[in-house]
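User: Let's play a game. I give you a shape written as tokens, and you guess the letters that built it. Ready? Here's round one.
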């Protein structure tokens, strides 16, 4: 049910009226954070709305959702308020939601509208779902309020300029949803190569192949980013030195040097309509001694990963690894749970910012 448009001056009184109408219904008002979402009025806005709804089911928060309409010829600022509760039967916790739709010159008024409605003494997470390299007055103002800025690199055009921009932010924590989306793969590789012996094998990598889902949707079109992140993370942590890259029809072939040997990295696009766009489907790694590590998702149950390890002399029994089941909003929940800015993520950004010829994602 869509709430009626009200004047910004009526936000507090309308919330009070709604809560008074809920007296006796056992609904408890709760807020763990201030969550400020910003997106443009495009087809992708529906995806961002779904994320916000799924997040507050787990973390009830004061939500301020800003949608900017850049296609309109008129300037306007519309506000709506509502109380959002978890699905019936789960619990009796509910939280406030303030929706702001804005266009034209009225965008400059948005900071003045939201400032009185930020709950004091609670963290302010700003989820900026658009390209941060395209600055605006609103973007600059929200930075001043944020204790943590969460971006989505799906919205960008060039990874190197995105990385440069994020590195420049020093007075608040930063995060990226695509970094969170491949966290399970980082944890899997870290748990596989945790011993000294296995780590030495990883250091002697000669070939790395990553298969990713190149199937696009209205919300996702930059499908190589997660696989670029994964190989870039390995390169940064193992101090591989970049040599060259070749791109052809979605396939990336990258060359690195490390300890006087070459490493060839290949990113293969495949089309899996039932899987999430951009997700990593398999990882195959071979060492100089022809030790082979293979990790592959079950296409019907993608949270189940088969792991195989073999050498020239032996082949171990296959193992199973279980990822957390994917759901809309999970990546944002992960970033809300994390504290600080990941040092591994910063190392990756430093690498990305230096590779203009390599990390280029065009819309």
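Assistant: Ready! My guess for every position:
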């Amino acid at each position: 049910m869509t709430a009626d448009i009200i004047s910004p001056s009526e936000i507090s009184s309308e919330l009070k009226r709604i809560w008074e109408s809920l007296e006796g219904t056992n609904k408890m008002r709760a807020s763990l954070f201030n969550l400020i979402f910003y997106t443009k009025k495009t087809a992708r806005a529906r995806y961002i709305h779904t994320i916000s709804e799924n997040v507050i089911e787990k973390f009830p928060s004061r939500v301020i959702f800003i949608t900017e309409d850049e296609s309109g010829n008129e300037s306007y600022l519309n506000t709506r308020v509502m109380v959002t509760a978890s699905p019936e039967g789960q619990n009796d916790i509910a939280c406030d939601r303030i929706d702001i739709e804005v266009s034209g010159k009225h965008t400059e008024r948005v900071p003045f509208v939201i400032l009185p409605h930020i709950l004091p003494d609670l963290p302010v997470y700003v989820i900026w779902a658009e390209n941060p390299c395209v600055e605006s007055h609103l973007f600059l103002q929200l930075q001043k309020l944020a204790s943590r800025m969460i971006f989505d690199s799906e919205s960008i055009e060039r990874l190197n300029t995105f990385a440069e921009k994020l590195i420049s932010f020093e007075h608040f924590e930063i995060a990226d949803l695509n970094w969170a989306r491949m966290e399970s793969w980082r944890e899997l590789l870290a748990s596989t190569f945790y011993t000294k012996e296995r780590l030495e094998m990883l250091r002697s990598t000669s070939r790395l192949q990553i298969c990713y889902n190149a199937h696009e949707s209205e919300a996702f079109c930059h499908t190589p980013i997660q696989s670029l992140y994964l190989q870039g993370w390995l390169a940064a942590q193992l101090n591989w030195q970049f040599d060259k890259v070749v791109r052809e029809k979605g396939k990336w072939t990258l060359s690195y040097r490390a300890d006087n040997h070459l490493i060839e990295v290949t990113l293969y696009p495949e089309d899996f309509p039932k899987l999430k766009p951009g997700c990593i489907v398999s990882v195959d790694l071979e060492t100089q001694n022809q030790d082979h590590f293979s990790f592959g998702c079950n296409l019907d149950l993608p949270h189940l990963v088969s792991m195989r390890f073999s050498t020239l002399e032996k082949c171990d029994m296959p193992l199973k690894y279980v990822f957390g089941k994917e759901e809309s909003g999970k990546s944002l929940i992960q970033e809300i749970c994390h504290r600080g800015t990941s040092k591994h993520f910063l190392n990756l950004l430093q690498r990305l910012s230096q590779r203009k010829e390599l990390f280029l994602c065009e819309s």
